[in-house]
Amino acid sequence: MASFLSSKPGGDPALGCTLGFGTPFSAQLMARVGYDWALIDMEHNPLSAREAGLMTHVIVSASAGKCRPIIRVPSHGVEWIKWALDCGSHGILVPMVKSGTEAEELVQRAVYPPRGQRSFGPSVAVFADLDSAATAMKYRTQTSKTVALIPMIESVEGLDNAEAICSVDGVTAVFIGPVDLRFSMGFTGGDGNEEAYLAALKKIVTICKRLNKPVGTFAVGEEECRKRTKEGFNFLLLPGETVVLVAGAKASLTDALKGIKGAKL
Length: 265
Description:
Elements: E1 14-19, H1 24-31, E2 37-41, H2 49-62, E3 68-72, H3 78-86, E4 91-94, H4 100-110, H5 136-141, E5 148-153, H6 156-160, H7 162-167, E6 174-176, H8 178-184, H9 195-211, E7 215-218, H10 221-231, E8 235-238, H11 241-263
Parallel strand pairs: 1-2, 1-8, 2-3, 3-4, 4-5, 5-6, 6-7, 7-8
Helix pairs in contact: 1-2
């Protein structure tokens, strides 16, 4: 199991940031902040496989392996899964998984034989390993066994089939996409206290705990992080570069304006 997705000592969730700018320099900066993992988001950002690969290597090297790169692929297609894994990412997040059958198909595309049907060719993945003596065969026999396959449950259909999805051998962890799940349930926004929504979160968390599989979700701000931690989530995805950049710029400008105002008193 990819242990970096499990709760840290003391029960604190592993924290990740979202990366979508597509620049290695931005990924390098964020990798040094102290996040446990980073999500390279190809689903909602126009990133190429090459850009995602470069970002993967930069995250590993800049953080000395402390920040783990995860790629959210744009679809279930074998080509996306193959590129994301062969570049050396520590796992993939796959959107809109709605059934156990779909989860099994993902395992077939992401796992080497005999369990799956993944084609062998990790020539680039070798260089995302901090071990300078790493080889393709080391990746095949050791590293690949720690790569995370994380289906996203973010629809009513996925919720109904959560047990089947989570139970598939080869599924490492599960991630709840709160916004799309809420839309699917007839709610709006990224969080809420509706009884049906809270019951949905509890259902998936309970299943994952029973199956000993980490469960994660998105969280914004102190209050959401507090709620999700109390609910038993093992890993959380925090806002990324856009939010951080704007918030930092606003804070810097506010401080400057306060200083200028203070000089006139």
